[in-house]
Amino acid sequence: DTAVSQTPKYLVTQMGNDKSIKCEQNLGHDTMYWYKQDSKKFLKIMFSYNNKELIINETVPNRFSPKSPDKAHLNLHINSLELGDSAVYFCASSRDWGSGNTIYFGEGSWLTVV
Amino acid sequence: AQSVTQLGSHVSVSEGALVLLRCNYSSSVPPYLFWYVQYPNQGLQLLLKYTTGATLVKGINGFEAEFKKSETSFHLTKPSAHMSDAAEYFCAVRANTGNQFYFGTGTSLTVIP
Asked: What is the pLDDT of residue B42?
């Protein structure tokens, strides 16, 4: 069973559209994340939720809105997509907020905005 | 504040040769250190991590890394490269307080037959 699963894996959409990426973890973890990886492979944290509560909200446009209906899910909704949003988005989770905990990543969602 | 520097965005080695990927961190306190590998079109997979205890850490696929506090380094090594090791490798640091996780810019490893 996949520990952290996200859908869709590939998404091609036009500028101005609204899209969502879903993420689920079956590890029983309390903390979930969204990371963005740009074309140069640089990974940057976007959001982090702990027990459904937002704890990290980096400076991303407010067109990006995370939603955590429960501890096992953290979805990412993007409004009014722009060309610069094209990237790979990774969902991840860790056992809890503790610093030594390993972060487990999903397979990534490749978003292309045309 | 934490930061991670990976020296060399691209490293090429011959099959069977030693792999050395460099990672230096800056931290006011000893951090937790991680190495992740990313194969093409896949997510990141943990190779190994250092939290406390023994400074030489062994990971999966024959990789190991040594935490050297005096050098603020956590270099990744493997005695003999295999073709399947070709991938992107990320060093990451996490402070021992708080939850922020900082990644290096990655090193792309090419293994030459």
From this structure: 87
Q: Give CA–CA dist B113/B98, Å, rounded.
A: 44
Distance from CA of A72 to the nearest CA of B (A): 19
Name B50's Cβ contacts closer than 8 Å, sequence gap at least 6: B32, B33, B34, B57, B65, B67, B74
Q: Which residues lie below 8 Å from residue B72, measured CB to CB, with a gap of 6+?
A: B24, B25, B26, B27
Of A55, A103, A108, Cβ closest to residue B101? A103
For residue B41, pLDDT beyond 70? yes
Nearest one of B26, B31, B28 to B6, comparing CA atoms: B26
Smallest CA–CA distance, residue B105 to chain A, in Å, is 5
Length of chain B: 113
Chain B residues with beta carbon closer than 8 angstroms to that of A104: 46
pLDDT band at B2 (very low <50, low <70, confident <90, very high): low
Give yes or no for A4 touching B (CB within 8 A).
Answer: yes
